[in-house]
Amino acid sequence: MKVKVISILEDNYMYLVIGEQSRMAIAVDPAVPHRLLDIIKREGLSLTAVLTTHHHWDHARGNETLVKEVPGLRVYGGDDRINALTDKVTNAQELKFNSINVRCLFTPCHTLGHMCYFVWEDDCTDAPAVFTGDTLFVAGCGRFFEGTAEQMYHNLTEVLGTLPQETKVFCGHEYTIKNLKFALKVEPENEKVKQMLTWARARDDDDKPTVPSTLIEEFEYNPFLRLSEESVQKFTGKTNPVDVLRVLRKEKDNFQKPKERMPPQAMLALQWDLLGASSCLPKT
Ligand SMILES: [Zn+2]
Protein backbone atom coordinates (compact mmCIF):
# COMPACT_ATOMS: atom_id res chain seq x y z
CA MET A 1 0.00 0.00 0.00
CA LYS A 2 1.42 3.31 -1.04
CA VAL A 3 0.39 6.66 0.39
CA LYS A 4 1.10 9.71 -1.72
CA VAL A 5 1.47 12.91 0.29
CA ILE A 6 0.33 16.02 -1.59
CA SER A 7 0.91 19.49 -0.07
CA ILE A 8 -1.90 21.89 -0.90
CA LEU A 9 -3.18 25.35 0.00
CA GLU A 10 -1.14 27.09 2.69
CA ASP A 11 -0.30 24.13 4.89
CA ASN A 12 -2.86 21.36 4.21
CA TYR A 13 -2.27 17.79 3.09
CA MET A 14 -4.40 15.69 0.80
CA TYR A 15 -3.51 12.03 0.35
CA LEU A 16 -3.86 9.23 -2.16
CA VAL A 17 -3.90 5.66 -0.88
CA ILE A 18 -2.87 3.40 -3.75
CA GLY A 19 -3.30 -0.36 -3.95
CA GLU A 20 0.01 -1.67 -5.34
CA GLN A 21 -1.55 -4.41 -7.46
CA SER A 22 -4.93 -2.98 -8.35
CA ARG A 23 -3.74 0.62 -9.08
CA MET A 24 -6.97 1.64 -7.41
CA ALA A 25 -6.83 4.83 -5.41
CA ILE A 26 -8.68 6.34 -2.47
CA ALA A 27 -8.32 10.07 -1.79
CA VAL A 28 -8.31 11.59 1.68
CA ASP A 29 -9.42 15.24 2.02
CA PRO A 30 -8.80 16.09 -1.66
CA ALA A 31 -9.37 19.85 -1.42
CA VAL A 32 -7.58 20.68 -4.68
CA PRO A 33 -9.49 18.40 -7.05
CA HIS A 34 -7.92 19.20 -10.43
CA ARG A 35 -4.44 18.62 -9.08
CA LEU A 36 -5.63 15.28 -7.73
CA LEU A 37 -7.18 14.32 -11.07
CA ASP A 38 -3.94 15.20 -12.89
CA ILE A 39 -2.02 12.83 -10.61
CA ILE A 40 -4.64 10.09 -11.05
CA LYS A 41 -4.36 10.38 -14.82
CA ARG A 42 -0.58 10.67 -14.93
CA GLU A 43 -0.08 7.59 -12.74
CA GLY A 44 -2.75 5.50 -14.47
CA LEU A 45 -4.88 5.09 -11.34
CA SER A 46 -8.60 4.67 -10.92
CA LEU A 47 -10.20 6.81 -8.20
CA THR A 48 -12.80 4.81 -6.31
CA ALA A 49 -13.57 6.72 -3.14
CA VAL A 50 -13.05 9.91 -1.18
CA LEU A 51 -12.64 9.79 2.60
CA THR A 52 -13.40 13.15 4.21
CA THR A 53 -12.24 13.71 7.77
CA HIS A 54 -14.47 16.72 8.43
CA HIS A 55 -16.59 19.37 6.76
CA HIS A 56 -14.19 22.35 6.93
CA TRP A 57 -13.62 23.92 3.50
CA ASP A 58 -9.90 23.18 3.39
CA HIS A 59 -10.68 19.45 3.64
CA ALA A 60 -14.02 18.99 1.86
CA ARG A 61 -14.26 21.70 -0.80
CA GLY A 62 -12.97 19.45 -3.62
CA ASN A 63 -15.66 16.79 -3.27
CA GLU A 64 -18.26 18.40 -5.47
CA THR A 65 -15.92 18.75 -8.46
CA LEU A 66 -14.62 15.20 -8.04
CA VAL A 67 -18.13 13.72 -7.96
CA LYS A 68 -18.93 15.57 -11.20
CA GLU A 69 -15.70 14.53 -12.91
CA VAL A 70 -15.54 10.90 -11.77
CA PRO A 71 -18.74 8.93 -12.46
CA GLY A 72 -19.75 6.62 -9.62
CA LEU A 73 -17.33 8.13 -7.11
CA ARG A 74 -18.39 7.62 -3.48
CA VAL A 75 -17.72 10.26 -0.83
CA TYR A 76 -17.53 8.96 2.74
CA GLY A 77 -17.67 11.02 5.92
CA GLY A 78 -19.30 11.31 9.31
CA ASP A 79 -21.04 14.67 9.00
CA ASP A 80 -24.03 15.83 6.93
CA ARG A 81 -22.27 19.18 6.44
CA ILE A 82 -19.63 17.54 4.19
CA ASN A 83 -19.87 18.69 0.56
CA ALA A 84 -21.24 16.07 -1.85
CA LEU A 85 -21.40 13.35 0.82
CA THR A 86 -22.79 10.11 -0.63
CA ASP A 87 -22.20 7.68 2.25
CA LYS A 88 -22.43 8.70 5.89
CA VAL A 89 -20.30 6.40 8.02
CA THR A 90 -20.42 5.57 11.71
CA ASN A 91 -17.87 4.58 14.32
CA ALA A 92 -16.08 1.26 13.72
CA GLN A 93 -17.73 0.82 10.32
CA GLU A 94 -15.42 -1.03 7.94
CA LEU A 95 -15.17 -0.35 4.23
CA LYS A 96 -13.39 -2.49 1.66
CA PHE A 97 -12.05 -1.30 -1.66
CA ASN A 98 -10.48 -4.26 -3.38
CA SER A 99 -7.53 -5.19 -1.15
CA ILE A 100 -7.68 -1.95 0.87
CA ASN A 101 -9.53 -1.94 4.19
CA VAL A 102 -10.75 1.14 6.02
CA ARG A 103 -12.03 1.32 9.60
CA CYS A 104 -13.87 4.57 10.41
CA LEU A 105 -13.00 6.02 13.80
CA PHE A 106 -15.43 8.61 15.13
CA THR A 107 -13.43 11.39 16.79
CA PRO A 108 -15.75 14.33 17.56
CA CYS A 109 -14.29 17.53 19.05
CA HIS A 110 -12.56 19.68 16.41
CA THR A 111 -15.92 19.26 14.69
CA LEU A 112 -18.79 17.13 15.97
CA GLY A 113 -18.73 14.85 12.91
CA HIS A 114 -14.97 14.33 12.64
CA MET A 115 -13.80 10.90 11.45
CA CYS A 116 -10.32 9.42 11.36
CA TYR A 117 -9.62 6.52 9.02
CA PHE A 118 -7.46 3.51 9.86
CA VAL A 119 -6.29 1.86 6.64
CA TRP A 120 -4.49 -1.37 5.83
CA GLU A 121 -4.04 -3.63 2.81
CA ASP A 122 -4.62 -7.38 2.65
CA ASP A 123 -1.53 -9.57 2.28
CA CYS A 124 0.77 -6.60 2.73
CA THR A 125 3.55 -6.28 5.28
CA ASP A 126 3.52 -2.45 5.30
CA ALA A 127 2.53 -0.78 8.55
CA PRO A 128 -1.09 0.38 8.66
CA ALA A 129 -1.90 4.08 8.28
CA VAL A 130 -4.24 6.40 10.12
CA PHE A 131 -5.54 9.60 8.58
CA THR A 132 -6.20 11.90 11.48
CA GLY A 133 -7.48 15.11 9.83
CA ASP A 134 -7.53 17.91 12.39
CA THR A 135 -7.71 15.63 15.45
CA LEU A 136 -4.10 14.45 15.92
CA PHE A 137 -1.21 16.36 14.35
CA VAL A 138 2.48 15.53 14.37
CA ALA A 139 3.42 16.80 17.87
CA GLY A 140 0.02 18.39 18.45
CA CYS A 141 -3.76 18.15 18.35
CA GLY A 142 -6.58 20.11 16.72
CA ARG A 143 -8.55 22.94 18.21
CA PHE A 144 -11.70 22.10 20.16
CA PHE A 145 -14.02 24.08 17.86
CA GLU A 146 -17.21 22.11 18.54
CA GLY A 147 -16.33 19.71 21.36
CA THR A 148 -14.85 19.27 24.80
CA ALA A 149 -11.58 18.22 26.41
CA GLU A 150 -13.34 15.01 27.52
CA GLN A 151 -14.05 14.15 23.88
CA MET A 152 -10.52 14.93 22.71
CA TYR A 153 -9.11 12.87 25.60
CA HIS A 154 -11.21 9.93 24.43
CA ASN A 155 -10.12 10.45 20.81
CA LEU A 156 -6.42 10.69 21.55
CA THR A 157 -5.97 8.09 24.26
CA GLU A 158 -8.73 5.55 23.73
CA VAL A 159 -9.35 5.67 19.98
CA LEU A 160 -6.10 6.68 18.26
CA GLY A 161 -3.73 5.84 21.12
CA THR A 162 -4.78 2.18 21.17
CA LEU A 163 -4.07 1.52 17.48
CA PRO A 164 -0.98 -0.60 16.70
CA GLN A 165 2.06 1.42 17.76
CA GLU A 166 3.74 1.13 14.37
CA THR A 167 0.75 2.81 12.66
CA LYS A 168 1.82 5.67 10.42
CA VAL A 169 0.15 8.98 11.21
CA PHE A 170 -0.94 11.16 8.28
CA CYS A 171 -2.50 14.37 9.57
CA GLY A 172 -4.39 17.22 7.92
CA HIS A 173 -1.86 20.05 8.25
CA GLU A 174 1.85 20.75 8.35
CA TYR A 175 2.02 22.38 11.79
CA THR A 176 4.96 20.35 13.07
CA ILE A 177 7.51 23.09 13.77
CA LYS A 178 5.05 25.28 15.62
CA ASN A 179 3.74 22.29 17.54
CA LEU A 180 7.26 21.28 18.56
CA LYS A 181 8.07 24.81 19.70
CA PHE A 182 5.07 24.55 22.00
CA ALA A 183 6.10 21.02 23.07
CA LEU A 184 9.49 22.44 24.05
CA LYS A 185 7.82 25.11 26.16
CA VAL A 186 5.84 22.36 27.92
CA GLU A 187 8.80 20.00 28.34
CA PRO A 188 12.07 21.97 28.03
CA GLU A 189 14.07 18.89 29.10
CA ASN A 190 12.58 16.47 26.56
CA GLU A 191 15.48 15.46 24.30
CA LYS A 192 13.17 13.82 21.77
CA VAL A 193 11.34 17.13 21.28
CA LYS A 194 14.66 18.89 20.63
CA GLN A 195 15.77 16.22 18.15
CA MET A 196 12.45 16.36 16.32
CA LEU A 197 12.55 20.14 16.11
CA THR A 198 16.02 20.05 14.52
CA TRP A 199 14.82 17.40 12.08
CA ALA A 200 11.56 19.25 11.26
CA ARG A 201 13.47 22.49 10.54
CA ALA A 202 15.78 20.62 8.17
CA ARG A 203 12.74 19.15 6.39
CA ASP A 204 11.24 22.62 6.14
CA ASP A 205 14.49 23.98 4.64
CA ASP A 206 14.24 21.27 1.97
CA ASP A 207 10.49 21.93 1.50
CA LYS A 208 9.70 18.36 2.50
CA PRO A 209 6.77 17.14 4.59
CA THR A 210 7.15 15.88 8.16
CA VAL A 211 4.39 13.29 7.66
CA PRO A 212 4.08 10.48 8.32
CA SER A 213 5.15 10.00 11.90
CA THR A 214 4.28 6.87 13.84
CA LEU A 215 2.14 6.51 16.95
CA ILE A 216 5.06 5.24 18.99
CA GLU A 217 7.02 8.39 18.12
CA GLU A 218 4.08 10.63 18.96
CA PHE A 219 4.02 9.23 22.48
CA GLU A 220 7.62 10.40 22.91
CA TYR A 221 7.23 14.08 21.98
CA ASN A 222 3.56 15.02 21.56
CA PRO A 223 2.47 16.66 24.85
CA PHE A 224 -1.19 15.95 24.07
CA LEU A 225 -0.38 12.21 24.27
CA ARG A 226 1.81 12.62 27.37
CA LEU A 227 -0.82 13.73 29.86
CA SER A 228 0.42 11.48 32.68
CA GLU A 229 4.04 12.67 32.43
CA GLU A 230 5.15 14.61 35.49
CA SER A 231 6.67 17.38 33.35
CA VAL A 232 3.41 17.93 31.43
CA GLN A 233 1.36 17.88 34.62
CA LYS A 234 3.74 20.39 36.20
CA PHE A 235 3.40 22.74 33.21
CA THR A 236 -0.40 22.68 33.45
CA GLY A 237 -0.66 22.62 37.25
CA LYS A 238 -3.15 19.75 36.93
CA THR A 239 -3.02 15.98 37.44
CA ASN A 240 -6.35 14.73 36.10
CA PRO A 241 -5.56 13.89 32.44
CA VAL A 242 -8.66 15.63 31.04
CA ASP A 243 -7.79 18.79 33.01
CA VAL A 244 -4.17 18.55 31.80
CA LEU A 245 -5.42 18.31 28.20
CA ARG A 246 -7.84 21.23 28.62
CA VAL A 247 -5.11 23.52 29.97
CA LEU A 248 -2.61 22.37 27.34
CA ARG A 249 -4.98 23.19 24.48
CA LYS A 250 -5.81 26.58 26.02
CA GLU A 251 -2.12 27.39 26.36
CA LYS A 252 -1.54 26.27 22.76
CA ASP A 253 -4.41 28.51 21.57
CA ASN A 254 -2.54 31.50 22.98
CA PHE A 255 0.96 30.36 21.98
CA GLN A 256 2.81 32.60 19.52
CA LYS A 257 -0.30 34.16 18.07
CA PRO A 258 0.64 35.83 14.80
CA LYS A 259 1.07 39.56 15.31
CA GLU A 260 0.91 40.49 11.63
CA ARG A 261 -2.35 41.30 9.92
CA MET A 262 -4.42 38.26 9.05
CA PRO A 263 -4.24 37.16 5.40
CA PRO A 264 -7.47 37.88 3.48
CA GLN A 265 -8.30 34.16 3.30
CA ALA A 266 -8.23 33.86 7.09
CA MET A 267 -10.28 37.03 7.47
CA LEU A 268 -12.89 35.57 5.13
CA ALA A 269 -12.94 32.30 7.07
CA LEU A 270 -13.38 34.27 10.28
CA GLN A 271 -16.26 36.23 8.80
CA TRP A 272 -17.94 32.99 7.78
CA ASP A 273 -17.47 31.73 11.33
CA LEU A 274 -19.11 34.84 12.70
CA LEU A 275 -22.01 34.32 10.32
CA GLY A 276 -22.44 30.85 11.75
CA ALA A 277 -21.18 29.16 8.60
CA SER A 278 -18.55 26.47 8.63
CA SER A 279 -14.93 27.27 8.09
CA CYS A 280 -11.49 26.38 9.22
CA LEU A 281 -8.88 28.99 9.87
CA PRO A 282 -5.72 28.20 7.94
CA LYS A 283 -3.71 28.16 11.17
CA THR A 284 -4.76 26.34 14.33
ZN1 LIG B 1 -10.56 21.85 10.43
UniProtKB/TrEMBL annotation:
<protein>
    <submittedName>
        <fullName>Hydroxyacylglutathione hydrolase like</fullName>
    </submittedName>
</protein>
<keyword id="KW-0479">Metal-binding</keyword>
<dbReference type="InterPro" id="IPR035680">
    <property type="entry name" value="Clx_II_MBL"/>
</dbReference>
<keyword id="KW-0862">Zinc</keyword>
<dbReference type="GO" id="GO:0046872">
    <property type="term" value="F:metal ion binding"/>
</dbReference>
<dbReference type="InterPro" id="IPR036866">
    <property type="entry name" value="RibonucZ/Hydroxyglut_hydro"/>
</dbReference>
<dbReference type="GO" id="GO:0004416">
    <property type="term" value="F:hydroxyacylglutathione hydrolase activity"/>
</dbReference>
<dbReference type="Pfam" id="PF00753">
    <property type="entry name" value="Lactamase_B"/>
</dbReference>
<keyword id="KW-0378">Hydrolase</keyword>
<dbReference type="GO" id="GO:0019243">
    <property type="term" value="P:methylglyoxal catabolic process to D-lactate via S-lactoyl-glutathione"/>
</dbReference>
<dbReference type="InterPro" id="IPR017782">
    <property type="entry name" value="Hydroxyacylglutathione_Hdrlase"/>
</dbReference>
<dbReference type="Pfam" id="PF16123">
    <property type="entry name" value="HAGH_C"/>
</dbReference>
<feature type="domain" description="Metallo-beta-lactamase">
    <location>
        <begin position="11"/>
        <end position="173"/>
    </location>
</feature>
<dbReference type="InterPro" id="IPR001279">
    <property type="entry name" value="Metallo-B-lactamas"/>
</dbReference>
<dbReference type="InterPro" id="IPR032282">
    <property type="entry name" value="HAGH_C"/>
</dbReference>
<comment type="similarity">
    <text>Belongs to the metallo-beta-lactamase superfamily. Glyoxalase II family.</text>
</comment>
